[in-house]
Design brief:
- The complex is a heterodimer of chains A (113) and B (112).
- Chain A is mostly beta strands.
- Helix content of chain A is 0%, strand content 58%.
- In chain A, strands 2, 4, 5, 9, 10 and 11 form a six-stranded mixed β-sheet that branches.
- In chain A, 35% of the residues are buried.
- In chain B, strands 2, 4, 5, 6, 9, 10 and 11 form a seven-stranded mixed β-sheet that branches. In chain B, strands 1-3-8-7 form a four-stranded antiparallel β-sheet, with no helix packed on it.
- Chain B has strands spanning 4-7, 10-13, 19-25, 31-37, 43-50, 56-57, 68-72, 75-80, 89-97, 100-103, 107-111.
- Chain B starts with a strand and ends with a strand.
- Chain B is built from no helices and eleven strands.
- The chains are: A mainly beta (113), B mainly beta (112).
- The A-B interface holds A 31-32, 34, 36, 41-44, 46, 49, 51, 89, 91, 93, 99-106 and B 1, 31, 33, 41-45, 48, 92, 94, 96, 99-106, 108.
Chain lengths: 113, 112
């Protein structure tokens, strides 16, 4: 069974500290992996997409890495700010399910001033 | 990136009734997807809607409960039929554009 797991489920850090969010998946045959942010009661905002041929993507303070062989992706957020408080979701598009993304349960992040 | 709108944004419905959720995209897309997010849970794919063909449902979801229409390349509807409190969730539509997936703001449904 193909699964996506995110650890930790929740994380609280003081402002300025770096955040490290982990995502693991059970099948290395993937097309894409996408990181999203969800604010309470809101929809999803796309943060970064990593294609299966890529090893990392960067956007501003965000960096996401992908290691297909070990079935892992890590989202780094540098110098966290209170505005980074949200739930972060990892979604995997497996090779045998083109167009369909399977989501992890998310990591709820709180950045305290 | 695709811009997606949904109507209604939220609704409170009585048990046994049905609600139709609309999803509008600002560009033509081949595939549209409907997801459900139950309270405190992550997203689960309900079905894939392609224009001109029947929707494809994931395991655990059936057409009688969640009928979907896809009349053109920019619009889709999801109906939640014969609702029960267990249907209380956020329903989101999404589209694939290039390699990325984009989501609408969601419809928050509460069934009493």
């Amino acid at each position: 069974k193909q699964e996506v797991t995110q650890i930790p489920a929740a994380l609280s850090v003081p402002e300025g500290e770096n955040l490290v969010l982990n995502c693991s998946f059970t099948d290395s045959a993937i097309y894409n992996l996408q990181w999203f942010r969800q604010d309470p009661g809101k929809g999803l905002t796309s943060l970064l997409l990593i294609q299966s041929s890529q090893r990392e993507q960067t956007s501003g303070r965000l960096n996401a890495s992908l290691d297909k062989s070990s079935g892992r992706s890590t989202l780094y957020i540098a110098a966290s700010q209170p505005g980074d408080s949200a739930t972060y979701l990892c979604a995997v598009e497996y090779a045998d399910s083109w167009g369909k993304f399977q989501f992890g349960a998310g990591t709820q992040v709180v950045v305290t001033p | 990136s695709a811009v997606i709108s949904q109507k209604p944004s939220r609704d409170i419905c009585q048990r046994g009734t049905s609600l139709t959720i609309q999803c509008q995209v600002d560009s033509q897309v081949t595939m549209m997807f409907w997801y459900r997010q139950q309270p405190g849970q992550s997203l689960t794919l309900i079905a894939t809607a392609n224009q001109g063909s029947e929707a494809t449902y994931e395991s655990g979801f059936v057409i009688d409960k969640f009928p979907i229409s896809r009349p053109n390349l920019t619009f889709s509807t999801l109906t939640v039929s014969n609702m029960s409190p267990e249907d209380s969730s956020i329903y989101l539509c999404s589209v694939s554009e290039g390699y990325e997936q984009y989501f609408g703001p969601g419809t928050r449904l509460t069934v009493t």
